[in-house]
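pinned: reference chain
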Amino acid sequence: MDWFDSWAITLAVFLPLAGVVAIGVLPRTSEAAIKATALLATVATFAVGIAMVLEWNFDVAADAPRFELNKSWISVISSNYHVFLDGISLPLLLLSMLVSVLCVIYSWDHFPEPHNPKAFLILLLVLETGMNGTFVAQDLILFFVFFELVLLPMYFMIGVWGGPNRQYAAIKFFLFTLFGSALMILSFLALFFQSDPSTFDIPELAAVNSSIRALPLTTQSLMFAGLFMGFAIKVPMFPFHTWLPDAHTEAPTVGSVILAAVLLKLGTYGFVRIALPILPEAAVKWAPVIGALAVIGIIYGALGCLAQRDLKRLIAFSSVAHMGFVMLGIATLTDFGINAAIFGMVAHGLITGMLFFLAGSIQERFHTRELARLGGLLKQAPYLGWILGFCAFASLGLPGLAGFWGEFPAILSAYNPAPGLNQGLFRGFMVVAALGTVFAAGYLLWMYQRTAFGLPPEEFADAHIHDVHTPEWIAWVPMLALILILGVFPGLLFGITDDAVQLVASAFRAGG
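pinned: its structure tokens
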């Protein structure tokens, strides 16, 4: 289907906006129709993603662009509507599509106060458009538009439907991200003006014969610094992480799930798609800094978890630690490390997304997230308790579950970093990161013991606590299944990403 090959990605990006228009014309009182329309829009988008997988030609190297479309967009600045899929972007696009469907299903009977399904689902669909577009954009201006599109709906989702300190958390999230984006667009403009011919096209800028690579290393490093700030704040890396615990703690459940499962990946994806291939020499210079901040984040995030008394805040700090493993893999500049990083992105999205789903359901039942007031979950709601245990073990990196393949290869990759990097330094990073896995086991098992074991506290001893509801089962089973499937068969994902990652890492095998 030639038309599908050309327009599939456009459908995948903009079908959610069609849902926004459809919901916009429906009266606010037609709640069932609004929910059905949102579900239809997300399912149709995911169906396009599945169709692209079925059309994927596995006989062609996975680094080859698929479903490519390159049309003139803003000709006055030489910016094109250039989109395509490769082995790096496909898993993350599918993750975004799947999580969006599951968030709509979960919301079916979990809409936060103030009860306004129309506005809430419109924001969710706009978020999906921004996330999907970021993962397929191959033009820096197009990438920036989609990268920033997610900012406004998430700001309102936190600020309107969040917790008691929602306004503070929403403004902090907005300002941190906007500051990083301002520096990032400056680097995009510098790349445009320094390239010959001037272009925003990512593949052209990343080409081996690109004029960018002939620039002085100091100039390249300054450009990389702007990209680093924009992406590192989004990840978020230590010490730019302080917006994340507040945003997660105050966001509604669905907002926390999308933030953890997909939005944090926009930063790590930016490193792999833009920063490393376009500025490889600067990446070699910056890699020790990135690796050091990554392992500091691993330990700091774990210690932060041990100090928390709020379930959602604990899970939020765990994201700082887990994204540290992703950034350590990227910092090695090797195909092994970058493959591990992409797997870690997907695994973290599934596992931590599930943990935030569970935290939201626990809060809904007990009206608290204080660990000191929880307990006996296995007795009062056994299915909920066992699912929480499964996700906790997946998060700590138990072999046989997806979290293991996001952490262990990233640690191992630091043993042999790319040429030009200090091998002894990165092996030191490897030891520190390995210690982080011990801390992870500590805080996750402590959290599980406090919430699930023992007898229910007196205030909930006689309360009737509902176990998992039907919409929760429907929303959670696909994520739980993928955590197990990818843990047992990691080659399903590595086989998709490897060829495209090899292309990114080729510059570093040659010494930059």
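why pinned: The beta strands are 66-74, 79-85. The chain has a mean pLDDT of 89.
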